[in-house]
Amino acid sequence: MTNLKKIAQNAKLASYTLASLSREIKDKSLLKIAETIEENKEKIIEANKKDLKEAQKMLDAGEINASTYNRLKLDENKMRDMIQGIKDVANLEDPVNQKQWAMKLDDGLDLYKVSCPIGVIGVIFEARPDVIPQIASLAVKSANAVLLKGGKEAVNTNTILAELINNALNTIEEFPKGAVNLLFTRDDVNEMLTMEKYIDLIIPRGGNSLVKYIKENTKIPVLGHASGICHIYADETLDTEKAIKICVDAKTQYPSACNAVETILINKNILEEFLPELVNALESAGVRIKADEDCRRIVKHLEPADKEDWATEYGDKTVSVKSVKDIFDAIAHINVYGSGHTDCILSLNPGKIELFMNLVDSAGVFANASTRFADGFRYGLGAEVGISTNKTHARGPVGLEGLTIYKYKLYGSGQTVNDYCEGKKEFKHERLI
Asked: SS in 3 state form for the chain?
């Protein structure tokens, strides 16, 4: 039986040592992890095959869906990206002990706002074994300890990855034990949610029900997004060829991803010319299309859509399409039905692009680019620990910067507050940085 309290206590102790590690040690640790995973790719793939075999039975029994099964699979491409992602994190600047702001309060009294680790992070995720090296690498670089709870579907893959990561870290003398931990049971999740004394932040990576459950059952701050209902608005000034290519990519490149498009809104003035071409391209790519009445008048064979569809994250090759009066109608629809994740405008009008970007209340707002770009690796963050739709601390793909907080460091030379209260001294408040 897991002694989770002891694991959390040890992680907390490890977090204090982590905060003092140099960039050299952290980067050395990351490169060792990448090397160890590279050397053991075949073991990882074999473990993943065991998980896929069991997952196929669950899929056949209707216990999991196809998108969950697809997320579980590790292939050569995912392994390559996983290893490169760790190396990319090593190449990033150290996010810890960076001076963000400085103020000279008085002669010999200087105040600095300095980045620092959050401490201990608990990450709860579903059938995504590639999450483990992503999060572990970000945790190492940002000097945070981490507790990882993966889905039962990936237990063999998760176990070998966590084992290899710790084997690599154990070869680095300065790196503290207990910094990267893997948990296994649902009971571990429930107990983790009560450990506000040891865990500083919870990051859920999964479906709406998982995120909602976690937010409702813990006092620990939660960073994440409940759903990924992403939109594309096709404006009347768009480039048709590029727009259709973007829509197809945003839906089909990885349909189960949280940044895949779920609803395409089309300006009524281009509906007759744009919709048939869009439908042809999407259906050729195997996409099922649900549409409102205006769209179905033009392409009659489309399935009907309703309000429930506007609020649905399909997670597969299904998309809804809807006619809108203008850009304001599109923005209103997105702000009502969207999840605040990622939304895009297809337009050649700079004024409309800026209007859309300013008024759409989402973590990512794009122009003329696939919503699938909403990703920590693609943003140049090295990897991501998750995507947040929160409006505090971190938003969008959360990489290294989102895993740090800050503290104020005041360097004095014998000053006391009373001298300033009695008027013997005055603050200068001169910005240094």
From this structure: CCCHHHHHHHHHHHHHHHCCCCHHHHHHHHHHHHHHHHHCHHHHHHHHHHHHHHHHHHHHCCCCCHHHHHHHCCCHHHHHHHHHHHHHHHHCCCCCCCEEEEEEEECCEEEEEEEEECCEEEEEECCCCCHHHHHHHHHHHHCCEEEEECCHHHHHHHHHHHHHHHHHHHCCCCCCCCCEEEECCHHHHHHHCCCCCCCCEEEEECCHHHHHHHHHCCCCCECCCCCCCEEEEECCCCCHHHHHHHHHHHHHCCCCCCCCEEEEEEEHHHHHHHHHHHHHHHHHCCCEEEECHHHHHHCCCCEECCHHHHCCCCCCCEEEEEEECCHHHHHHHHHHHCCCCEEEEECCCHHHHHHHHHHCCCCEEEECCCHHHCCCCCCCCCCCCEEECCCCCCCEEECCHHHEEEEEEEECCCCCHHHHHCCCCCCCCEECC
